[in-house]
Amino acid sequence: MIAALVxxxxxxxxxxxDSPAAQAVVRRVEELHARAGDLTAxxxxxxxxxxxxxxxxxxxxxxxxxxxxxxxxxxDPEAKTFISDGRRFYFYVPAxxxxxxxxxxxxxxxxxxxxxxxxxxxxxxxxxxxTPPAEGLLRLRLTPRRAExxxxxxxxxxxPSGRVRQIxxxxxxxxxxxxxxxxxxxxxxxxxxxxxxxxPAGVEVIQG
Length: 208
Description:
By secondary structure, the protein is an alpha+beta fold. The chain has a single domain (17-207), classed as outer membrane lipoprotein receptor (LolB), chain A. 19% of the residues lie in helices and 43% in strands. It has four helices and twelve strands; from the N terminus they run H-H-E-E-E-E-E-E-H-H-E-E-E-E-E-E. It has helices at residues 2-13, 20-35, 110-116, 121-124, and strands spanning 38-48, 55-65, 69-76, 80-85, 88-93, 98-103, 125-130, 138-144, 153-158, 164-170, 176-186, 204-207. A hairpin with a 5-residue loop joins strand 9 and strand 10.
């Protein structure tokens, strides 16, 4: 009896096996975004605290340009900017009068990974198809192959073409970040200057 219980517990702890159909959808997502020279979209981010149960909603515009450049411009309710120029990552909040700078290879944002088309998603996650949220959409459930506190699961809603419409990231503390994307456009010719950051006068630089 005890042996059976132990075996059941060990099996439950193992990551779910990949679904071939889900793997095909993931590859479609990677291929579509890898083909796009650039991408821009409006986004709504809703963060829910697992401890406090409070929700915070933010809105802005995301811009991505291959290779390795991105800009998340938050406009409401507080202005803040995340920029990667391909080498360094900048996080700037005007109200704080400071910018945090770190090497780009330390940036592990799941939305950025999915939208850039540069990540090995199936190398990091198992993939399963879940119940579609609406007609014309597919839902992927991604589970980390290696346990980590920052990510317990990722739920991704995509069009059949592979275009990402919504990403939800949940951690082991019950916190949840949901990104919804609208007005998505690819290959619009985003200018290089959009991904450059010049430190404003009087702003403190913190090496992160």
